[in-house]
# Entry
Amino acid sequence: MAALAPLEGAARAQIVVIGAGYTGLSAALHAAAGGREVLVLEAGQIGAGGSGLNGGQVIAGLKHDPHVLESLYGERIGAQLTACSGSAPDLVFDLIRRHGIDCDAVRAGWLQLAVGERHLRLLERRAAEWRSLGADAAVLGEREAAQLTGTRRYSGGWIDRRGGTVQPLAYLRGLAQAAVRAGARLFPQSPASRLSRRGEAWCIESARGSVTASTVIVATDAYTGRAFDELRRTVVAVPSIQVATAPLPPSVRAGILPGGQSVSDTQRILRYFRLDAAGRFVLGTRGSYADIPAPAATPAHERALRELYPQLSGTAIEYRWGGFVAMTRDGLPHLHEPAPGLLAGLGYNGRGVAMASAMGRLLARRALGEGPESLDFPVTPVRPIRLHALSRAGARAAIRYLQARDALERGLRGASAGGLG
Ligand SMILES: Cc1cc2nc3c(=O)[nH]c(=O)nc-3n(C[C@H](O)[C@H](O)[C@H](O)COP(=O)(O)OP(=O)(O)OC[C@H]3O[C@@H](n4cnc5c(N)ncnc54)[C@H](O)[C@@H]3O)c2cc1C
# Structure
């Protein structure tokens, strides 16, 4: 892809996308493929947001199980949310295949593993429910979980074979290239600073230029700033930090996740991990606001490495980085249409690799003229969280409390489990 430059001067487009993460670039790709003139404004470099920083786990479904979605939102909307999120990994792997995206994509499944019997019962029910809906999923006992992971820290769980892994930044760059090939114009280092209505059109001002368009798609997720203040206050941006070890020697690597799955566990402050294509062990968990972009030392991560895989004690950490995850009040992503020709999609609650890609396509379909009722996804009003300014302090206190409870439970389980190493 040719080097990209910031937007200079006045431009026009039919659709302007603000934010070049998975949401924005999937929207740009699908809208450009639908024949529209698309222009993308990105505040930083491509990959500055969660899409360039995440754990690369492609996960089907949302935080809430299908029956919970139905009981909360009714049969029709519940089924829509389940169908869209359940098939989102298909879209990711299909985009990768169709556009020849080189991003170490592996579709070996996603493991969700239980800390304790109570969580295991919940995961067994989750697996049964998805299986009844046709998903390729299975319950794992303690021994099977240990075989698949190489650690005995878990009571069991389930494998969801719809999921997989990608190198997140490579997937994003591949989407950017595909969008450009489809005709979209991308402008990094071009933060949208003001949005105003000019007759029938929208005018978006950026640092050194401006653009008018009939449709604007805001795709800024946890990185939404004060230029879109109401939207910013619909999510709480929670920090998540990851570490990657040096590439592991083949003998050590063979004993860790030999099937190539990725893992998330059910701790209150969850841990997620996988091996990358070079054999680095990559592990993430929540951080604190002071940890962004990345602390020099990551004791919680190093402790997790030792607890899960004692054979990694002493292995050098080569990389540390972090980003923000957008959490919503109801745990669901939202598609908004706050004004005619103004669309937004955000709030993936840590499951955005697949779901943001799917949201981008939904936003493009709406921008291409499909009616909201035919999207098979609810369009919801923008509802800022009351006392949003306090939510950071609340999140900080909640994280500390949950970390303490997790440590207590891990201690109890560790006393009876022991590692494999
Ligand atoms: C550390 C971490 C680990 C994660 N792990 C996983 C995982 O393993 N699996 C999973 O499914 N999800 C994971 N997530 C969540 C996932 O990364 C996000 O949900 C997803 O990337 C959101 O994509 P997006 O395009 O909506 O937003 P982003 O990728 O955050 O993109 C938003 C973009 O908007 C830009 N922007 C903001 N304001 C403006 C403006 N005014 N003008 C122009 N541009 C602007 C930002 O610079 C940014 O590039 C993780 C997130 C983090 C931070």
The chain has eleven helices and 20 strands. The first strand starts at residue 9 and ends at 12.
